[in-house]
């Protein structure tokens, strides 16, 4: 793995009596897709919110390009070059694709929206991602789930991020739409971005991820090169079976119900 663009060390977060994260470490390098895995309550969402500055960590160190940085609010993460696409996508259904891409960052000329420049930049961005959409001027409400996800990802790229975090991007998508999104994730990696993919879908993880970082009960439970690690080994880390003496002795892992892992 190349030098990490983002490195977390000893990240901890407590909510009252609940220790949501306990000394968590994580690295993401440029041109790498890291899958963040874990069962419900493992701390995945808390870690993402800490990185995004939505719910800052109580302690720990964040290093960016080898230098310590502080992320205490979303603006700090954005200025560093961290983009986060949450499950709700935060798109405006009544606006077209161009308006959604530039929402909050509209281009103006003499106080008037520069529609032509925004459309030109939107088309150039989507072309660079090899993305085909029906029209840049159709309302987002008319798009499929996969197309909406692509618009949300494309919007995050307008800020020239270096790390993109995707929260369950294929959770509600069909087979064809999932393939579209996974293809886009690979293109982001090919363009040199670091991608942190939060997913429950092991098929998606094996399709695009270079490494799988597993959390369990708010702690690190393993970091695996995906292509060199079996499905069962990753599931064992997610479920805690890897800590079971019987599992360690026999090498047998039950994978029933792992779609929820």
Automatic annotation (TrEMBL):
Residues covered by the ABC transporter domain: 6-242
The record's section on SMART domains has:
AAA
Entry keywords, A to Z: ATP-binding, Nucleotide-binding
Q: Which PROSITE patterns does this one have? A: ABC_TRANSPORTER_2
GO MF annotation: an example: ATP binding
Q: One short Pfam family name for this protein?
A: ABC_tran
UniProt xrefs under SUPFAM superfamilies: P-loop containing nucleoside triphosphate hydrolases
- Which domain of life does this protein belong to? Bacteria
Name this polypeptide is given: Sugar ABC transporter ATP-binding protein
């Amino acid at each position: 793995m190349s030098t990490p663009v983002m490195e977390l060390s000893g990240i901890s977060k407590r909510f009252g009596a609940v220790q949501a994260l306990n000394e968590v470490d994580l690295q993401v390098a440029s041109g790498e897709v890291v899958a963040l895995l874990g069962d419900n309550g493992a701390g995945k969402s808390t870690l993402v919110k800490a990185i995004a500055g939505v719910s800052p960590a109580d302690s720990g160190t964040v290093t960016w390009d080898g230098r310590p940085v502080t992320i205490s609010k979303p603006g700090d993460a954005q200025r560093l070059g961290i983009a986060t696409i949450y499950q709700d996508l935060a798109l405006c259904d009544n606006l077209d694709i161009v308006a959604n891409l530039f929402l909050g960052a509209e281009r103006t000329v003499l106080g008037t929206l520069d529609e032509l420049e925004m459309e030109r930049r939107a088309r150039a961005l989507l072309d660079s991602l090899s993305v085909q959409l029906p029209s840049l001027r159709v309302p987002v409400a008319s798009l499929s789930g996969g197309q909406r996800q692509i618009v949300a990802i494309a919007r995050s790229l307008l800020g020239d991020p270096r790390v993109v975090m995707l929260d369950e991007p294929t959770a509600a998508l069909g087979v064809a739409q999932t393939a579209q999104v996974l293809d886009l994730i690979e293109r982001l990696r090919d363009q040199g971005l670091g991608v942190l993919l939060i997913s429950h879908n092991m098929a998606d993880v094996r399709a695009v991820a270079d490494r799988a970082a597993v959390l369990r009960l708010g702690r690190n439970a393993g970091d695996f090169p995906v292509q060199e690690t079996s499905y069962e080994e990753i599931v064992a880390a997610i479920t805690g079976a890897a800590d079971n003496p019987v599992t360690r002795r026999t090498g047998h892992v039950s994978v029933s119900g792992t779609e929820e892992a």
